[in-house]
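In practice, a research group might receive sequence data for several interacting partners and want a quick structural hypothesis before committing to experiments. The following worked case mirrors that situation: the sequences arrive first, and a predicted assembly follows.
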Amino acid sequence: MTPPREDEDTGLPWPRSWGGVYALVMLVFIAWVGLLAGLTGMFP
Amino acid sequence: MNTLDYVILLGTMLGIAAYAVWSTRGHHDLNRYLKGAGGTGWLTIGLSVMATQASAITFLSTPGQGYESGLGFVQNYFGAPLALIIVAAVFLPIYRRLKVYTAYEYLGHRFDPKTRLLGAGLFLLQRGLGAGITIYAPAIVLSTVMGWRLDATIVCSGLLVVIYTVAGGCDAVSLTQKYQIGVIFAGMVAAFFVLLARLPAGLTFSDALTLAGGFHKLEAVDFSLNMDRRYTFWSGTLGGMFLALSYFGTDQSQVQRYLSGASVRESRLGLMFNAVFKIPMQFFILLLGVLIFVFYQFERPPVYFNKAAWGAQAARATDGRLRALDAQFTEAHAGERAQLEAWLKARHAGDGAGEAAARAASVAAHARVEAVRTETRAALDAASPGTKANDADYVFITFILDHLPHGLIGLLVTAFFGAALSSKAGELNALGSTTTVDVYRHLVRRDASDAHYVVASKCFTAFWGLVAIGFALFANLAENLIQAVNILGSIFYGVVLGLFLVAFFLKRIGGTAVFWSALAAQALVFVLYFNLSISYLWYNVIGCAACMAFSVVLQAGISLRGGPQPRPA
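A structural hypothesis for the assembly, expressed as tokens:
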């Protein structure tokens, strides 16, 4: 089940690991929910 | 539509299709026909995944949702980033390692042939039915715009996509999707800025948001735990995650897109592209609908957005009721507009008390406008027994035709048409592949040549195209097209996802246990769907959880009786 080693490197300057990429995507998601919740509260 | 619009529409659509057919000519190798050249980069994969999911329904119907119900629908997509991460981390490496053509081949590797056929069969059933709905939506647009017969529009648009998908296979689908999504984004962004420019003089973007908020159109996130509400943070995140996990992880129309990547890296980055941009894209389209709502508070809209249907009934009716309702609507709309202007005047003057009073009066005036619209729908329902009047899908196209300049009208209609064809091509490509690999090659003809399977795949793709056209010809307008597609998906997707999650994570469960459990779970979902009134997204969770739980219990029973043990994964 372990993917080949060459696929562990993202090839990006940053983040270098896929765990880092997934964490970044989660942060973007949380930021979007926060912004949308803020929009909901700003124009009640 | 004038000559310029027709030139843009026909030139763009036929040009893209012809280019795809020409550039993929001579692909007789099965691997290349079903999975592409194998060198697809992450951006093409990302755009292709996005184009497959975002059909014409997305761009046609979603602004109507924003107009009617505000931004709340965006919560439906909250589960997508989480699901895409799981697909990229868990599903994708396994599919790539086993070098499968379809996701259901993996079920055959892990369980047995009957479970593989069950997974493929559920996909073919729900995607075959859904394909009819996705071809119906653009046909409505085109028939309304051009005054064509609806059936002729369905047949013409359906045949174009069948021709280039059959001719070019996976490469043609990816290639056309890349250009079509470019046209779509250009059209939607242009419509947004023209809409901003068409708002009344003195009405700022902030004013527009304030007015929309006053009518509860900006309630994007609802953290309440009420299961009856169709869109909440929880149903969207949890139910939406299961829906998206099933769609991106097990639906061949998506799996085929990212399996064409040059490497796991390219496929993963393509999926992460969608994880990042899916929510903002849907938000943008809904916001467009909300701004159209604000625009129509100052510009009188039609009392019923499907003007062709309204006009036909008004001409036929002899009692003058529809004409009287139209006159009432004009009066109510003028009253609301006067209240809104008072609201804006108080806001600009910094008069808090006056603003609150004018806002309350505007909301009351808007309720009168909506009452006339509701009465109009009831009158249309009474005039055509057996149909349910709903004009939400006509809001955006009405705005485009009535208020955008020529050239841009052609671009937007091209965008709808391109979106329809891009998602339809992905579906047909997947339906043809699954029928060839999981049914024909597996059950009917095991050892034929590559060229034979390429021909078979082309025949099956054409067959599914004709089935989709047939369904579209007999479809009726559902409450809202995009919801109809999602509801249909949610009924089947949960169980299919359950099959895959058992395969990935419950190693001790064998094919017999999971096969019968999936059938029982599907029956349970059907029973609940017809007896409960909960958000349809929850059926993804229920179907998946039932399939997994039943599998555990049944495997325990089989093991206790000394029955067959699972094969090692």
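Before designing any experiment, note the following. Chain B is about 80% helix and 0% strand. The longest helix of chain B spans residues 150-198.
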